[in-house]
Amino acid sequence: MSVTVDQQAIGAEELGLKTVGQVLARLQREKRLVVRLLIDGEAPDFKQIEAVRAVPLAGRTIFIETADPNTAAMETVIVAQQQLAAAETLKGEAVALLRSDQWTAAMQKLGKCLGNWLEAQQAASAVAKLSGIQLEQMRVESRSMAEWSATFAEQLRQIQTALQANDLVGLIDLLVYETAETGLGWKSALGVLAVMIPSAGPVKSAA
Fold it and tell me: Which of 24, 72, 165, 188 has the fewest CB atoms below 10 angstroms from its CB?
């Protein structure tokens, strides 16, 4: 049996740990976030997490890397902020291409823009979960996060409708005017989350 956590061997047997799940539970109590797990040199299928937790330590080589949850949350916020900034640039480029009737190139830019928006929104949810923040209770710019999410979802539907109808004018109006406030709302939300994250260790820039 060999159990290594962050390059340091731990005496699992002496600690009374018999399964992978018991090791993970101990790390959770120590407020460590598992970012990598190898069992006999291979990453397990986390879709079968209960089976992974039940794996006995006896005769196995377990390697685990962890991170501080608050540091990970702050790093996620930084990446999401950069994604939002990139989305705004991509949106502007898409609008310029639409206005010059370069539809194919515009769709490529728009696809990346929407992808960044979605990832930033998902990041906000992940950060809240990592930090124990009740996202549904947050209010930004006098609106709840649920309202911002609903607005964004509706705008995505409107964009899809405009695309299906080849409504160039309507699509440009949506991108230039309707999504502007939503983008600022999510930018503000990420800023609020960053303030609410408990003090963490040094955070590397995602640049």
Answer: 165
Average confidence score pLDDT of the chain? 89
> Do 113 and 145 have their domain in common?
yes
Among left, alpha and beta (phi > 0; psi -120 to 50; other), residue 132 is: left
61 and 118 share one domain: no
Answer yes or no: do 176 and 103 share one domain: yes
The verdict on 14 and 96 lying in the same domain is no
Tens-digit pLDDT profile for residues 62-103: 999 998 888 888 999 999 999 999 999 999 999 999 999 999
Write down which residue in 42, 67, 92 finishes a domain.
Answer: 67
Is the C-alpha dihedral spanning 131, 134, 136, 142 positive or negative?
A: negative
**Interatomic CA distance for residues 55 and 123, integer angstroms:** 31
Decide which of 46, 67, 88 is a domain's last residue: 67
Range of the domain at 41: 2-67
- Predicted confidence (pLDDT) per residue in 111-170, tens digit: 999 999 999 988 888 888 777 787 777 888 888 888 888 899 999 999 999 999 999 999
Alpha helix (H) residue ranges in the chain: 20-29, 49-53, 69-99, 103-131, 145-164, 168-173, 179-196
Query: How large a percentage of the chain has pLDDT more than 70?
Result: 96
Q: Is residue 206 included in any domain, yes or no?
A: no
Cβ contact 21:42 at 8 Å: no
